[in-house]
Amino acid sequence: MSALTLRNPRGDHSPVPEFSATEAKNSFGKVLDTAISQGMATITKRDRPAAVVLSMDAYQALLAGQAQPLQHLSQEFDALLLQMQAGSSRQGALDAFDALPQAMGQAALNAAQALR
Questions:
Q1: What is the CATH superfamily name and number for domain 5-54?
Q2: Rounded distance, CA 41 to CA 77, Å?
């Protein structure tokens, strides 16, 4: 039984094929063919997952998924920063920095009560 599962294109979890380190050493071609056809293969050592062989498609998808969230967050941050630096938002931020602690506390209470 495989310790790792993979989400297939339909969204179902399916077990990742496993090979012992000895099997991988003696039949690497089979491990490689499995990784290419199924996306990945696990290599175990002492019955525990020790390594994963990825197909090039799975590897590229992994890299692509890594870059997109950071780019999206960076764009979202830039848009929020521009919004905070414009008009009433800018004045509100400046007022908050100049406010006394008691005034900030009262403003927080008023905002919390307004949400109820």
A1: YefM-like domain (3.40.1620.10)
A2: 38
Q: What is the pLDDT of residues 40-65, one digit of tens each?
A: 999 999 999 999 999 999 898 888 77
Listed residue (27, 2, 32, 28) closest to 15, CA to CA? 2
Rg of the chain over all Cα atoms, to the nearest angstrom: 26
- Cβ–Cβ contacts within 10 Å for residue 35, how many? 22
**What six digits make up the tokens of 74?**
């960076």
Compute the C-alpha angle 26/63/36, nearest 5°. Answer: 30
Q: What is the pLDDT of residues 79-101, one digit of tens each?
A: 888 888 888 788 888 888 898 99
| Mean pLDDT across the chain | 86
Nearest to 97 by CA among 82, 110, 84, 109: 84
Using CB atoms within 10 Å of the CB of residue 59, give its burial: 0 to 12 exposed, 13 to 18 middle, 19+ buried.
Answer: middle
**Residue from 56, 47, 60, 59 nearest 18 by CA:** 47
